[in-house]
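Re-run with default settings, no changes from the original entry. Doing this only to confirm the output is reproducible before filing.
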Amino acid sequence: MSYSRARAEAIGIKMESIGLAERPERIIILALFTIAAIYWLPALNIGIIVLAVLSNFTVLQRALHVYKTLKKGNKP
């Protein structure tokens, strides 16, 4: 995900606040499921799955944002 943001920003597209699960949200999700795993071990597996799904969704959101921006001709 960081790579997709860095590549888009390298060509001048603002990527701030684009995507559902940016770094702070991913850290919070991982922390919550890790704490839950202390009491119920399968919670960690569920947390990793949730993190993987949200991460992939975020990359798709960012790719779509870059595509729409470039299609409009807003490239600097």
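The helical segments are 2-10, 23-39, 42-72. The mean pLDDT is 88.
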